[in-house]
Amino acid sequence: MSYIKVEGHSELVREQNSHAVINTDTTTYNTYMRMMENKKKQRDQLRDAVREINSLKCEMHEIKSLLMQLMDKK
């Protein structure tokens, strides 16, 4: 494969056969990938927190139902 530099963009090259533009700036790419991984972790943490909250809501509802049953028996 041979590459031609894209005029005005030192970090970009064009592959001659497919004419694809390729970014050769690995630092920016790695920074972007770290940022995306952090966003994924945040989404996962939020999803886990929502699941835990929903679980606690269900448990509280069960406790409330049991207390209501106890109150009705007296």
Tell me what the structure shows:
This protein has one helix at 26-73, and strands at 3-5, 12-15, 21-23. With 74 residues, the protein is of the alpha+beta class. The protein has one domain (3-73). Strand 2 and strand 3 form a beta hairpin. The longest helix is centred in the C-terminal third of the chain and has 48 residues, at 26-73. The N and C termini lie far apart (85 Å). The model has no long low-confidence stretch (mean pLDDT 95).
N- to C-terminal separation? 85 Å
Structural class, from secondary structure content? alpha+beta
Strand content: 5-15%
Placed side by side, the strands forming the largest sheet appear as 1-2-3
Q: Indicate the mean pLDDT.
A: 95
Rg to the nearest angstrom?
28 Å
Number of domains: 1
Largest sheet: 3 strands, antiparallel
What portion of residues is helical?
55-70%
How many beta-strand segments? Answer: 3
How many helical stretches?
A: 1
**Shape category:** rod-shaped
Q: pLDDT below 50 for ≥5 consecutive residues: which ranges?
A: none
N to C succession of SSEs: EEEH
